[in-house]
Amino acid sequence: MTICTDERNCTNDVKTAIDCFMNGLIKRNPGELEFHQAVQEVTESLMPFIWNNRHYKDSQILERMTEPDRIIIFRVSWEDDQGNIRANRAWRVQFNNSIGPYKGGMRFHPTVTLSVLKFLGFEQVFKNSLTGLPMGGAKGGSNFNPKGKSDREIMRFCQSLMIELHRHIGEDTDVPAGDIGVGGREISYMFGQYKRLENRFVGTLTGKGLAFGGSLIRTEATGYGAAYFMENMLNHTGDSITGKTVAVSGSGNVALYCIKKVTDLGGKVITASDSSGFIHDPEGITAEKLVWLRELKEVKRGRIHEYAKQFKSAEFYEAKRPWDVKVDLAFPCATQNELNGEDAKQLVANGVIGIAEGANMPSTLKAIRIFLHAKVRFGPAKAANAGGVAVSGLEQSQNAMRIAWSADEVETRLIDIMKNIHTQCLRYGECDDGQLDYVKGANIAGFVKVADAMMAYGIV
Ligand code: NDP
Ligand code: 2IT
Q: What is the whole-number distance in angstroms between the Cα of residue 252 and the centre of ligand 1?
């Protein structure tokens, strides 16, 4: 039996068309499991919409949108503190610049592969479109492992990487930022090197230090935005975060500021994690405890189990994730596929009512289906964590105008943007049975702007 790999030949039904399209995509991108997963999720939402809007179908828009504009692959050679020569691989996936210059983070982690960066770049296209700001989608990174490296090793790696990357990026071309393993320190080393190589001071990277063009609230923006998105979902049905018990995973940039804003909005966060396990603090990670945790993670670069030594109310669970703790709300804020079908079942059995994805693609497809079936309010990554890139977009605007807005000004804009993303999700995500499908809503709303721009450009 021949397998249908071309949706154009499929005249049957939408479901078969999804299978045909995915067969073709898998054949064209063999072994790229994360990329397949991200495209599958989007295609399930989009195919019925595209079939009802034939101009998109006739113009092969989905085939074109799942092919990156270009991918740059390069070697990064550097010298460690012992004088050994090391070589890593780095990539920049420039996925789509139909509605603005490429924009998206850089990830440094040993698990980085082309598949991971293609899934992230693809998601970024839709996310950036949802922010309403003129930003295309990209992602980059390296299989370099920053853990245990000295500051000088990190500096040499970042400088070496920029020697190649600088010729592919620019304030109107492609504007990288942070992601896993890339925070203020790494952005500063990369920006410093970019400036030397180009002899120009322009906003080609975001997430910069406040003294050299960074925006207030950028560090906080992704976590704050996820909390605001959850608040919007709850407010829509007359509820709020106040009084809710909350699980957060991760203890990096996104998790720490998600905990902060959820706490400010009246929730009680009782978990945090890293790749070694999670802590459960039934008394809550209060504002005072969070100050200590931020110092541990942001300054000392310590491990989460130290929290349980510091605060006796907490227990550390080694090599476990926080999803069997009973909570009302959950924010997966660590990494992709950290919440599977079994975890979702457990959360639902424990009465969870809302999920907002701070991380990118933290829930497996199975987990998402379980949440939607159980009518849990589920805020997908491209909507819920868009606050980070949105404030990056605001940093670009401030740099272009050579001004700096106050923290209040930036946070007010962030709140408006998250509200607007929620409204866009409702526009396309309200189902006939009254259910709110934020996955469908975010995918279609993000798609329409990019697709319409591509249609206007002709055959591109
Ligand atoms: P950080 O590097 O600051 O923190 C990552 C956190 O996740 C750490 O606690 C880390 O633990 C944990 N983690 C990473 N990989 C794994 C893994 N394989 N298994 C278990 N835990 C893991 O990154 P961010 O907080 O910036 O990013 C977290 C997520 O949010 C990512 O999915 C990222 O793509 C997404 N995101 C980030 C944005 C940003 O502005 N930074 C914007 C939008 C989304 P450990 O220290 O042990 O590795
Ligand atoms: O996944 C993401 O949206 C980010 N890592 C932030 C990207 C950015 O350009 O700020």
A: 6
CB 70 within 8 A of CB 94: yes
Q: Which residues pair with 71 in a beta bridge?
A: 93
Closest alpha carbon to 248 in 307, 202, 295, 191: 307
Between CA 192 and CA 179 the distance in angstroms is: 18
Q: Enumerate residues lining ligand 1, CB below 6 A.
A: 111, 178-181, 183, 222, 250-255, 274-276, 333-335, 358-360, 385, 388
Question: Do residue 115 and residue 36 come from a single domain?
Answer: no
Assess whether the C-beta atom of 104 lies below 6 angstroms from ligand 2. Answer: yes
Residue 418 domain-assigned (yes or no): no
Indicate the top mutation candidate among 106, 124, 217, 399 to test ligand 2's pocket, ranked by most ligand atoms within 8 A of CB.
Answer: 124
Of the three residues 188, 212, 236, the one that is the final residue of a domain is 212
- Kindly give the number of the ligand 1 atom that is closest to the alpha carbon of 276: 47
Report whether 91 contacts 72 (CB < 8 A): yes
> Would you write out the chain's pLDDT as a tens digit for each of its 460 residues?
678 888 777 767 899 999 999 999 999 999 999 999 999 999 999 999 999 999 999 999 999 999 999 999 999 999 999 999 999 999 999 999 999 999 999 999 999 999 999 999 999 999 999 999 999 999 999 999 999 999 999 999 999 999 999 999 999 999 999 999 999 999 999 999 999 999 999 999 999 999 999 999 999 999 999 999 999 999 999 999 999 999 999 999 999 999 999 999 999 999 999 999 999 999 999 999 999 999 999 999 999 999 999 999 999 999 999 999 999 999 999 999 999 999 999 999 999 999 999 999 999 999 999 999 999 999 999 999 999 999 999 999 999 999 999 999 999 999 999 999 999 999 999 888 888 999 999 999 999 999 999 999 999 9
One domain for residues 309 and 255 = yes
- 161 closest CA partner among 105, 88, 101: 88
Give the total number of structural domains in the chain. Answer: 3
* 393 assigned to some structural domain: no
Residue 150 in domain: yes
User: Which atom of ligand 1 is nearest the CA belonging to 251?
Assistant: 9
Domain that holds residue 290: 221-379
Q: Which two three-digit tokens encode residue 269? A: 């966060």
CA of 360 to the centre of ligand 2 (A): 10
pTM here is 0.98
Domain match, 101 and 180 both: yes
Q: 334 CA to middle of ligand 1, Å? A: 4
Q: How far is the CA of 333 from the centre of ligand 1 (A)?
A: 6
Burial of 415 (0-12, 13-18, 19+ CB in 10 A): middle
116 Cβ closer than 6 Å to some ligand 2 atom: no
Catalytic residue of the set 127, 139, 208, 440 = 139
